[in-house]
Amino acid sequence: MISNDESIKKTKLSVVIPVHNGEKYIKRIVKRIQKQDYCNYELILVENGSSDNSWEILQKIRKQNPNVVIFKNKERGTSLARKKGIELATGEYITFSDQDDQYLNKTSFRQMVDSIETDDSDICQFGYYSSVCGIRRLHSVISETKIITRERLMQKEIEGIVSSGTHELNTNVWSKIYRTSILKEVVNKINQPLYYCEDMYLNTIAFFNKNIKKISIHPEAYYIWNVGMGTSGAEKAARKLFYEYAFLKPLIIELAKENNVNEEIIYKIYMEIIYFMKTIIDNMIDEKIRDIEIISEIEKYEKMNIVKLAKQYLKNNTKESYSELNFLTSSYTTREYYDYLMTHRNVNKKNLMVKKIIRFIRKF
């Protein structure tokens, strides 16, 4: 076990928190972090284009706390704020938090560091709690610690990082602790200002680092995700998320091919694109948005290169075709696409892929 005396040694843990219009939350999370019984950490707060008093609050916090680092980032986007946090980090390990969340108890940092050091892993993932109106739910898909080699990661487990659905690995950055050297080796590859795909973006870059030898997963949970605080509605967020997919998914597919990832995973990524688009349009119909607006949205998606690539790939690689997929990958007009979804409302709701993606969207 690591003692508090290590606070005089080289920093062990860097905790990175992007701050955007966080005046309601930031004092609270800093106070909670200060209650940790683990002293050998630095807290890096990166202000990210706020229009409130966040920066003034961060300056006051810095004056009162010698282990707090603050930075006013000129480049906006959560992904770029985390990038700056990685660049500033001096700890041996890095973990991330959102400004409106919290850690489970005062031993969280100690237990996270103990776990990654005991496993001698490059990235260690834990369970987490989601909290809705104060009601907590545990999210942990394993019952005992699991070790994943790089070979196993590329053949199967990477699916949890690069796609939606339920997997042992997940896209959340705040449920993980990383060896800092792994992130610093690839941090320059993070160059897009993403707000919605930022977790998947960082983890894609991190997990495809060729120097990773071992990943570990623990069932224990140390983090509480406060669902819905400071976020936009699911339908609007999903539409914004899809536009970020247009950048991120081609990058994922490129890296997957470079690392000889199982072809089945690449197939699922393309399927996700097609059905994510379908789910968004379904939701717009459910929200009774005017058909002219829905058709306009379909037209925008159809012009995206990632949609064109997904349709072509699935046409060439789907072994067991069925009517819905045949239509979704066909050369339909935007009106035909809209009419198809209107006609098949009951069938669409039963589709398993749609249900998985809806659950994924609700995170936002």
Indicate the topology:
Layout: E1 13-19, H1 26-34, E2 41-47, H2 54-64, E3 68-72, H3 78-88, E4 93-96, E5 102-103, H4 108-119, E6 123-132, E7 135-139, E8 146-149, H5 150-157, H6 159-162, E9 176-179, H7 180-186, H8 198-207, E10 214-226, H9 234-258, H10 263-286, H11 291-302, H12 305-317, H13 323-328, H14 334-343, H15 345-349, H16 352-361
Parallel strand pairs: 1-2, 1-4, 2-3, 6-10
Antiparallel strand pairs: 4-9, 5-10, 6-7, 6-9, 8-10
Architecture overview:
- By secondary structure, this protein is an alpha/beta fold.
- Helices cover about 50% and strands about 15% of the residues.
- The chain is built from 16 helices and ten strands.
- Strand 6 (about 125-130) and strand 7 (about 135-140) form a beta hairpin.
- Helix 9 packs antiparallel against helix 10.
- It is globular, with a radius of gyration of 21 Å.
- It starts with 12 loop residues before the first strand and ends with a helix.
- The model has no long low-confidence stretch (mean pLDDT about 90).
The number of helical runs is 16
The proportion of strand residues reads 15-25%
Q: How far is the N terminus from the C terminus? A: 37 Å
The secondary-structure class comes to: alpha/beta
**Overall geometric form:** globular
Please bin the fraction of helical residues.
Answer: 40-55%
Report the radius of gyration as a whole number of Å. 21 Å
What is the H/E string? Answer: EHEHEHEEHEEEHHEHHEHHHHHHHH
Overall pLDDT level: 90
Which residues form runs of ≥5 with pLDDT under 50? none
Largest sheet: 10 strands, mixed
Question: Tally of extended strands?
Answer: 10
